[in-house]
């Protein structure tokens, strides 16, 4: 299974972006070592990078965990959930499917659903509905628009 080295992944690797830890790992084919995005090891050549979504994937491809960033040593689920929540808050006005959420948050659909529900008690789609409802209620309270306008607006936003 191959995952693309997207621009955002490459940027995360090149800038040692800690906020992307847990979302993916990268291996370097010349060393057969894999790292977290935040690892401060030497930035590899783009063409030598392999992307993994889980440490298990990296291990099964015969890559060894980096001693420096210890990609197998932590449990980043809570961090990931925070990132997903933030993503939903920022993007609730767009048409979002489980697929797009999983893709943008660098996880599989099944892992997204399972981990999110386990950590928050509700599914990602229900969480999204809650955000949208809260937003509509605030509009109702604060905007003075008639309910029909807001309903139309919500509908228009989903087009
Ligand atoms: Zn490392």
Automatic annotation (TrEMBL):
<keyword id="KW-0805">Transcription regulation</keyword>
<protein>
    <submittedName>
        <fullName>Ada metal-binding domain-containing protein</fullName>
    </submittedName>
</protein>
<dbReference type="Pfam" id="PF00165">
    <property type="entry name" value="HTH_AraC"/>
</dbReference>
<keyword id="KW-0238">DNA-binding</keyword>
<dbReference type="InterPro" id="IPR009057">
    <property type="entry name" value="Homeodomain-like_sf"/>
</dbReference>
<dbReference type="InterPro" id="IPR035451">
    <property type="entry name" value="Ada-like_dom_sf"/>
</dbReference>
<keyword id="KW-0804">Transcription</keyword>
<keyword id="KW-0808">Transferase</keyword>
<dbReference type="InterPro" id="IPR004026">
    <property type="entry name" value="Ada_DNA_repair_Zn-bd"/>
</dbReference>
<dbReference type="InterPro" id="IPR016220">
    <property type="entry name" value="Me-P-triester_DNA_alkyl-Trfase"/>
</dbReference>
<keyword id="KW-0010">Activator</keyword>
<dbReference type="Pfam" id="PF02805">
    <property type="entry name" value="Ada_Zn_binding"/>
</dbReference>
<feature type="domain" description="HTH araC/xylS-type">
    <location>
        <begin position="82"/>
        <end position="159"/>
    </location>
</feature>
<dbReference type="InterPro" id="IPR018060">
    <property type="entry name" value="HTH_AraC"/>
</dbReference>
<keyword id="KW-0489">Methyltransferase</keyword>
């Amino acid at each position: 299974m191959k995952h693309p080295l997207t621009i955002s992944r490459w940027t995360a690797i090149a800038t040692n972006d800690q906020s992307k830890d847990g979302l993916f790992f990268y291996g370097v084919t010349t060393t057969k070592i894999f790292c977290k995005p935040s690892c401060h090891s030497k930035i590899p050549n783009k063409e030598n990078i392999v992307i993994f979504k889980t440490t298990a994937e990296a291990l099964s491809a015969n890559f060894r965990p980096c001693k420096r960033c210890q990609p197998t040593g932590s449990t980043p689920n809570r961090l990931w959930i925070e990132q997903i929540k933030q993503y939903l808050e920022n993007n609730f006005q767009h048409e979002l499917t489980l697929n797009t959420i999983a893709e943008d948050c660098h996880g599989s659909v099944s892992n997204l659903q399972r981990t999110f529900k386990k950590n928050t008690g509700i599914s990602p789609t229900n969480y999204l509905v809650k955000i949208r409802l809260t937003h509509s209620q605030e509009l109702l309270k604060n905007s003075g628009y008639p309910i029909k306008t807001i309903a139309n607006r919500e509908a228009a936003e989903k087009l």
